[in-house]
Design a protein that fits this description.
Number of domains of chain B: 2
Shape of chain A: globular
CATH superfamily of the largest domain in chain B: Nucleic acid-binding proteins
Distance between the termini of chain B: 89 Å
Helix content of chain A: 55-70%
Radius of gyration of chain B: 24 Å
Strand order of the largest sheet of chain B: 2-4-5-7-6
Oligomer: heterodimer
Shape of chain B: elongated
Largest interface: A-B, 71 and 58 residues
Distance between the termini of chain A: 64 Å
Number of strands of chain B: 8
Strand content of chain A: 5-15%
CATH class of the largest domain in chain B: Mainly Beta
Largest sheet of chain B: 5 strands, mixed, barrel
Number of strands of chain A: 12
Largest sheet of chain A: 6 strands, antiparallel
Number of helices of chain A: 21
CATH topology of the largest domain in chain B: OB fold (Dihydrolipoamide Acetyltransferase, E2P)
Order of helices and strands of chain B: HEHEEEEEEEH
CATH architecture of the largest domain in chain B: Beta Barrel
Radius of gyration of chain A: 27 Å
Structural class of chain A: alpha+beta
């Protein structure tokens, strides 16, 4: 029953989306308002139908309806309750439903927000968003049908991939898809701006916040993906430059570039063409990422389902890029800059450089990812470049970007005078050099690490200096301490939200540097009762126990750890044996710390429990990545919050009284 | 005009530097993907390879005490002996595909620095023979427990 209902809902939603798209476009170009109104209703209908699809599938999961192929391949009777719900996006077909649902939700919000405020833009925005939703519904209908019927109905399902039975896998795809689908909104506004010929800053002001929302969710998705990789996969790393990771990283880079170059357009009426290009690229890269990972053209550690879906994405990607760039070419004479660069020492040029480096980083990631394809096409050799390539090329680019992160927000617009440069940068440069020297004095020998530390301290100092000056000015104007700091951040939330995001990135940069430079590991086979030592920790192998769980059984090792001061902790890494998997899966155990994590993987063991092989890692400063992610979240929230200048123009008296 | 020329020249220099960076990166970290037959046909010692094949049944030897792992990768025609230091990773077993990264030692075996295990989003059909293996494992561990 569920397969038929689900399929009917999918087809109905597809028809509605196509109708709505055409109705909105015709209504907008012939100014027939009734058509636009019916297109709005179609958008609501699409959302309702996709919601119904999702609920049907969840219901099928909860009731173990194995007549649905997707349910049978992603769950079994032993799968715990909450993983039966998240199994919804455990694999391709369900992920597409989630994706389409988020897209239809974004469409509804756009209708609600802009139907009155932007009567010119929004019919076209609606048309574009419904067209994209239509594509995903087409994918749900033909190449990746989630409601495929399975006959005969099996007694039990195959079960969820054990690696996905994890909190990280519950949240990672949700955040990632919210990011990916979120970029449809600015893309739709960009297309609408080109179609109606209002290519000024209007659409940019409207979509800036939407881009931050999408950017934020994508950042979160990347970070949670790193956390999942770190605590589930058992290799002790959080980023491997795998094609799947790169696919999500490329749109992040171009979106970051856009968020910065937007400011130049708002301020100086420059870079209109460039901003439109960045938005088109970002949206295209989200499609390209899906194509790359789902078509199987690039070998990845993540072996995804393959099928005709790659062709669908490739054709749609080609159509999107062709359409978007044709529109761009058609409107090119309206996109000329209204002012030009005055000096190399200016905020404009700092932002331009930032854009150049971000796009270069995106290009190198793209190049490295598709390199095997290029090489095979050119000379028939199967060649790939791995992590060393990406690290070598991206380290200098990211160091330059960190430097610009300090320069950009403080340097003057148009032309910075020597006085401006001295006033804003002399102190931070000195503090940065002192910071690097201190690191050197404490024994940091690596030049790259020193450079990174110095740059991070420099940028942090510019932010602190700026905030301190602004707060001091508010104090002199008579504000209380709380009002002069917290109130200031709220009132200029865009600026200070950006600064907090920068601080988060700095903390992440330190985490990456520290973990790459100072982590250490060893592997050893130890007898029961014997110990292995690493970096001041002594790890004793105490015991090996079998444990039965609802859908698997595991062999758990018990290791007591002591550090220089005495007993520290007990770690219990395990090997899990799932009936549906042919080989066991390691379950890591770890003790996270601010400075270092102790990370223990059970490799192999004797069946009588007499000895076990373990991999011990001391991963330094990895926690800084997660802390940086939290700071980034705060900053993004602050930057998205309603514009302070308008809503809270009057300082609130109660704050001042409290202070 | 003069200013514009300066900006363009500056931009070109940066782009050229980035281009060189990419070129240097590629030439330093290029890894050739080969099958056992291709490797045996013309092995170059010291060159970085990614060798892909199937772990030959009966070839896996694992010495926990010395952490030495040895197995043979085959493509059905040619077999290449591989040596690695470290426990066999998850998803690695005889009769399954594996990709190893490393160099040709020049002494008749491939020295693997990394064994790439494929983790899959899809699920394999339950494997009855392995199921039996796990049951037996559970039993021996239980027995050990009872004897204590």
């Amino acid at each position: 029953m569920i397969p038929e209902l689900g399929y009917a809902a999918t087809v109905a939603a597809l028809a509605l989306a196509l109708f709505g798209c055409i109705a909105a476009a015709v209504g907008a170009s012939t100014e027939r308002h009734a058509l636009v109104v019916s297109s709005e209703r179609a958008a609501i209908g699409v959302w309702l139908l996709v919601t119904a699809c999702m609920l049907l599938l969840v219901y099928a999961f909860l009731t173990f309806d194995f007549s649905v192929r997707y349910v049978a391949s992603n769950t079994n009777r032993g799968t715990p309750f909450y993983y039966r719900i998240t199994a919804l996006w455990g694999s391709l077909e369900g992920s597409i439903i989630l994706w389409t649902w988020m897209l239809s939700l974004y469409t509804l919000i756009v209708v609600g927000q802009y139907r009155r405020r932007q009567p010119k833009f929004y019919p076209w925005v609606l048309a574009v968003m419904l067209a994209v939703a239509g594509f995903f519904l087409l994918v749900m209908t033909i190449p990746a049908p989630p409601f495929d019927r399975l006959t005969p109905v099996p007694a039990d399902g195959r079960g969820l991939n054990p690696l996905l039975e994890d909190s990280g896998m519950i949240t990672h795809p949700v955040a990632l898809y919210l990011g990916f689908t979120g970029f449809t909104v600015p893309f739709a506004f960009a297309m609408a701006a080109l179609i109606i010929g209002r290519t000024g800053d209007e659409w940019i002001t409207i979509t800036r916040r939407w881009t931050i929302v999408a950017w934020y969710f994508l950042s979160l998705g990347l970070l949670i993906g790193g956390w999942w990789s770190y605590h589930v996969l058992g290799w002790g790393g959080y980023w491997a430059w795998d094609p799947v990771e790169n696919a999500a990283f490329m749109p992040w880079l171009t979106a970051t570039a856009f968020l910065h170059s937007v400011m130049i357009q708002e301020r100086r009426r420059m870079l209109k063409l460039w901003n439109l290009t960045l938005i088109i690229l970002t949206f295209s890269l989200t499609l390209f990422g899906t194509f790359l990972t789902r078509s199987g053209i690039i070998g990845s550690v993540h072996a995804f389902t393959q099928g005709s879906i790659g062709i669908f994405f490739l054709v749609f990607l080609a159509l999107v890029m062709l359409g978007a760039f044709s529109l761009l070419a058609w409107r090119i004479e309206r996109l000329r800059a209204q002012s030009e660069l005055d000096s190399i020492f200016s905020r404009e040029s700092a932002f331009l450089l930032n854009n150049l480096f971000l796009v270069a980083a995106a290009f190198t990631v793209f190049f490295g990812t598709v390199f095997p394809l290029l090489s095979e096409a050119v000379n028939g050799q199967k060649v790939s470049v791995g992590a060393p390539f990406f690290n070598l090329v991206n380290i200098p680019i990211f160091l330059a970007l960190i430097f610009l992160m300090g320069v950009g927000p403080l340097i003057a617009w148009r032309r910075a005078s020597a006085e401006n440069l001295r006033r804003n940068f002399l102190m931070p440069v000195v503090i940065g050099v002192v910071g690097a020297a201190l690191c050197r004095a404490f024994g940091v020998g690596n030049l790259l690490v020193l450079l990174c530390m110095g740059l991070v301290v420099f940028v942090a100092a510019t932010i602190a200096l700026d905030f301190w000056r602004a707060a001091r000015a508010r104090r002199r104007a008579g504000d209380g301490w709380l009002e002069a700091t917290w109130g200031l951040a709220l009132r200029q939330n865009r600026r200070y939200g950006g600064f907090v995001v920068h601080l988060g990135i700095l903390v992440i940069a330190l985490g990456v540097t520290g973990s790459q430079a100072w982590s250490t590991q060893t592997e050893a086979t130890i007898n029961r009762g014997a110990t292995v030592e690493l970096a001041g920790y002594t790890i004793r192998f105490d015991d090996l126990q079998p444990v039965e769980e609802s859908n698997h059984f595991k062999v758990v090792g018990t290791f007591s750890v002591s550090d220089r001061r005495g007993p520290y902790t007990v770690l219990t890494p395990a090997k899990k044996f799932y009936p549906q998997e042919q080989t066991p899966i390691a379950a890591v155990d770890y003790r996270l710390g601010f400075v270092e994590d102790l990370y223990l993987v059970l490799g192999d063991f004797a069946r009588d429990g007499s000895h076990a092989t373990v991999k011990v890692q001391i991963n330094r400063m990895v926690s800084w990545l997660w802390i940086g992610g939290l700071i980034l979240t705060l900053g993004a929230a602050l930057a998205i919050a309603p514009e302070g200048r308008r809503t809270a123009a009057r300082p609130r008296r109660d704050h001042a009284v409290m202070a | 005009m003069n200013r514009r020329v300066k900006f363009i020249a500056g931009g070109l220099i940066i782009v050229a530097a980035l281009g060189y960076l990419v070129y240097a990166g590629v030439s330093q970290s290029m890894v050739y993907f080969v099958t056992p037959s291709e490797l045996q046909a013309a092995p170059v010692s010291g060159k970085a390879y990614r060798l892909g094949g199937m772990v030959e049944r009966g070839s896996l030897k694992w010495e926990p005490k010395t952490l030495s792992l040895a197995f043979t990768l085959t493509d059905g025609k040619t077999a290449v002996p591989v040596r690695h230091r470290g426990a066999p990773p998850d998803l690695f077993a005889e009769g399954r595909g594996a990709v190893v990264e490393g160099t040709w030692s020049g002494e008749g075996f491939f020295k693997a620095s990394l064994i790439l295990a494929k983790h899959s989003e899809e699920y394999k059909a339950p494997h009855d023979s392995n199921q039996a293996g796990y049951k037996e494992l559970l039993k021996t561990l239980r027995k050990e427990e009872a004897n204590k």
